[in-house]
Design goal:
The complex is a heterodimer of chains A (219) and B (254).
Chain A lengths: L1 E6 L7 H13 L4 E6 L2 H6 L2 E4 L5 H10 L3 H11 L4 E4 L1 H4 L4 E4 L1 E4 L6 E5 L15 E6 L1 E2 L15 E6 L1 E5 L5 E6 L3 E8 L2 E4 L7 H12 L4
Parallel strand pairs in A: 1-2, 1-3, 3-4, 4-14, 5-7
Antiparallel strand pairs in A: 5-6, 7-11, 8-10, 9-12, 12-13, 13-14
Chain B lengths: L4 E9 L2 E2 L14 H11 L4 E5 L9 H12 L4 E4 L5 H10 L3 E4 L1 H5 L2 H10 L4 E9 L5 E5 L4 E6 H10 L4 E6 L11 H10 L4 E4 L5 H9 L5 E4 L1 H4 L5 H10 L9
Parallel strand pairs in B: 1-3, 1-11, 3-4, 4-5, 5-6, 6-9, 9-10, 10-11
Antiparallel strand pairs in B: 1-2, 6-7, 7-8
The chains are: A alpha/beta (219), B alpha/beta (254).
Chain lengths: 219, 254
C-alpha cells in the first residue's frame, strides 16, 4: 500500500483535501494511505507528496519555512528522488521562482515562472472584472495531455478562488489554462511535478478524476 | 469563461434543516447532509449553511453537520451564523467549511474582518451584509434579521469590508427576504458596481426570472436562494437551465 503525505504547515483546512484523496483512492482501487502531516520522517517516507495552500504567497512560504527541515526534505524527495508531487492553489504557486504578493518572496524555483496579481481585462459591457477570480471556470487542456489530466477535456469545469496566479515562462510546462479576461495558468508541471491553481478537492467529479490520476501516476 | 454560481442555502437549527420539503428521494429530509447531497447531485455550484441555532449548548451541532457534508460533497461550502471570533472560524474550517460568512460581528468590530482575512486569507472570508432601503437610492445596514439599524450606509460599508479583506460580499435585501418578489435590483447593482470583489445576491427569489435579473440587471456574480429550492418549487438544474437559456454563462453537465 502506498502512502500519500498531505503536508500540514498551518495553511487552511486540509480535511476536505484528505477526504477527497481518500474517496479518489477508494474509487480508483488504489488503496493509498492518506496522511495529513508535518512530520518530516513521514513526508520523507511517503510515495507521493501533496502541498496544499491558501492565503498569501509570503505567508505560505513562511509556513513552510517554519517547519524546521521541511524545505530540505521537499527538495530531497521531490527533486532528487523524483517522488510524484502535487501542489494545490498557493501550493502550486510556491513551485514558481518567486511570488510578488505584497512583497517579493522566493518560491521553490521548480517551475519557470513568477506569481503576480491577476489583472483581467474589463467585462464586455465595460465593468471591471471581479478579483478574486472566484468560482467555476472552463479548462483548456494543452495538447499532449499530461497523464494526470487523463479524462479531463476542454470544457470541463474546475473551482478557482485566487487573486494571484502563476505566469509560466515555458510553454511546455503549462498543462492547462482558463480564460478570465486573459489567460490564467490552471495546471503546470514537468517531470514528476504537477500543480493546480484550482482546487481539485472542491471540483467534484473533475477534481476527483485528477486526484485519482495523480494517485495512479508513474512519472 | 467564469460561470455564474447558483448557491442553495440551508437554514440549520440544532443540526437539523429548519424548513424544507419532503423530497421522496431523501432518506431524512431534516438531515442537512442528505439535503446537501441532493443539491450537490443537481449541480449546485456551492453550498451555504446558515446556522440559526439559538442556544449556546447546541452550537456544536453545526460542526458535525459540516464534517459529514465535507466527507461527501466535494464542492465549496460556506457557513454563516454566529461567527464571532477567530476561534469560531478556525473550528468551522477544521470541520470542513471552505468559507465563513461574518455578519453582526463585522458590524460590532470591523477590524475582526481584517484580522480574519489576514489570518485565514480573503478567499475564505465572506462578509454578509443585510440591507434595507431607506429612501431613494439609499440603503442602510441592519443586523438581527433586519430589526437593528446600524446607521451604516450599505454601499460604503461593503466597500470598507472589501478593503478590509472580505473575499466576497453576501448581500441580502431585508425588504425582499421572504417575499418572493425578486432581489432588490437597485441595491444589488449599487453594491456590485461599488466593490471589486464578487457579490452574491440574496433575498426575495420567487421565480427563476428573478435569478436571471440578479445577474443581468443587478450585476451579481452569484445568486443565493433558500426556499425555492427547499420547498421543491424549482430544482437547481432547472434554475441553471433557465439562466443558461437567458444567455448567462452556467456550469452544466460536469
Amino acid at each position: 500500500m502506498q502512502t500519500i503525505a498531505i503536508i500540514d504547515y498551518g495553511s487552511g483546512n486540509l480535511r476536505s483535501a484528505a477526504k477527497a484523496f481518500e474517496r479518489a483512492s477508494r474509487e480508483s482501487g488504489a488503496s493509498a494511505e492518506i496522511r495529513v502531516t508535518d512530520d518530516l520522517a513521514t513526508i520523507a517516507a511517503a510515495d507521493r507528496i501533496v502541498l496544499p495552500g491558501v492565503g498569501a504567497f509570503a505567508d505560505c512560504r513562511a509556513g513552510v519555512d517554519r517547519v524546521d527541515g521541511l524545505r530540505d526534505t521537499l527538495e530531497q524527495r521531490v527533486i532528487r528522488d523524483a517522488v510524484p508531487f502535487l501542489g494545490i492553489c498557493v501550493g502550486m504557486q510556491l513551485m514558481a521562482r518567486a511570488g510578488f504578493e505584497h512583497l517579493t518572496t522566493e518560491g521553490f524555483a521548480w517551475i519557470d515562472g513568477e506569481v503576480h496579481r491577476i489583472e483581467p481585462s474589463d467585462e464586455e459591457d465595460g465593468r471591471p472584472r471581479k478579483v478574486p477570480h472566484m468560482g467555476w471556470n472552463v479548462l483548456t487542456v494543452s495538447a499532449g495531455h499530461h497523464p494526470v489530466l487523463t479524462g479531463l477535456e476542454d470544457g470541463h469545469h474546475a473551482y478557482f478562488v485566487h487573486s494571484y496566479a502563476m505566469r509560466a515562462s515555458a510553454a511546455e510546462q503549462k498543462l492547462a489554462t482558463v480564460d478570465y479576461g486573459g489567460e490564467i495558468c490552471a495546471v503546470v508541471g514537468r517531470d514528476n511535478l504537477v500543480g493546480t491553481q484550482f482546487h481539485p478537492e472542491k471540483s467534484q467529479a473533475t477534481g476527483l478524476r485528477l486526484i485519482a490520476n495523480f494517485i495512479g501516476w508513474t512519472p | 469563461m467564469l460561470k455564474v454560481r447558483v448557491i442553495p442555502c440551508l437554514d440549520v437549527k440544532d443540526g437539523r434543516v429548519v424548513k424544507g420539503v419532503n423530497f421522496v428521494d431523501l432518506v431524512d429530509a431534516g438531515d442537512p447532509v442528505e439535503q446537501a447531497k441532493l443539491y450537490d447531485a443537481e449541480g449546485a455550484d456551492e453550498l451555504c449553511f446558515l446556522d440559526i441555532t439559538a442556544s449556546h449548548e447546541n452550537r456544536e451541532t453545526i460542526f458535525d453537520v459540516i464534517a459529514r457534508t465535507a466527507e461527501q460533497c466535494f464542492m465549496p461550502l460556506n457557513v454563516g451564523g454566529g461567527v464571532r471570533t477567530v476561534e469560531d472560524i478556525r473550528k468551522l474550517l477544521l470541520a470542513g467549511a471552505d468559507k465563513v460568512s461574518i455578519n453582526t460581528a463585522a458590524v460590532n468590530n470591523p477590524d475582526f474582518v481584517r484580522e480574519a482575512a489576514h489570518k485565514f486569507g480573503s478567499q475564505c472570508i465572506t462578509v454578509a451584509v443585510d440591507a434595507k432601503s431607506v429612501g431613494e437610492g439609499r440603503f442602510e445596514v441592519f443586523t438581527h434579521g433586519g430589526r437593528n439599524a446600524t446607521g451604516l450606509d450599505a454601499v460604503a460599508w461593503a466597500q470598507r469590508m472589501a478593503e478590509y479583506g472580505a473575499g466576497e460580499i453576501l448581500l441580502t435585501s431585508m425588504d425582499r427576504d421572504g417575499t418572493k418578489q425578486g432581489f432588490d435590483i437597485p441595491l444589488t447593482r449599487a453594491i456590485s458596481d461599488a466593490v471589486p470583489v464578487p457579490v452574491i445576491a440574496s433575498g426575495g427569489v420567487g421565480t427563476l426570472d428573478h435569478l436571471v435579473d440578479g445577474v443581468r440587471d443587478g450585476h451579481a456574480s452569484a445568486v443565493l436562494a433558500a426556499s425555492i429550492f427547499h420547498f421543491g418549487t424549482y430544482r437547481i438544474s432547472e434554475a441553471k437551465q433557465a439562466m443558461a437559456d437567458a444567455g448567462l454563462p452556467m456550469r452544466q453537465g460536469d
